[in-house]
Amino acid sequence: MSVRSRHLRALLRVSLTALLCALLALLTGCSAERGGTSSGGGPVPAWAEGMDTVREERLPAEARDTLRLIDQGGPFPYAKDGSVFGNYEKLLPERKRGHYREYTVKTPGSRDRGARRLVTGREDEIYWTEDHYASFRAVLR
To answer: Which chain positions lie within coiled-coil regions (predicted)?
Structure first.
C-alpha cells in the first residue's frame, strides 16, 4: 500500500470518528437543557427557569401515555395517581400543600409502580422524574 493510500485511509478514519462524535454529542445534548431557552429554541416558561428541561416528545412512550391520561382527566391505572405530591425533597418550587399532584409512569419489567413519575402543578407545570424524586426536569410542551 502506498504512502498516499495509507494517508487517505487515516484521514477517512479520523473524519468518520469526528462525524460520529459530533452526532453523538448532538443526540445526547438534545435530551436536556438548563434554563434560558427550551430545547426547541423557544423561551422557557417562568416556572421552569433554572431547571433541566425535556421536551414532551423526548419522554419515554409510557410518560407520553400518562400525559394523555392527565389531559383527559383519567381513568388512571394506579390508585395513587392524582394524589397530592408533598415536595418533601424541596426540589420543586415551594408551593402550598395541594399545589402538586403525582402520577405513576409505567416502567417496563417492574413488578411494582417503579420509580418514574410525572408531577403536575396548578399553574400547568409538568415535571418528570425517573429516579423517584431524586431529580426533576421540567417538561416543555
So the answer is: none
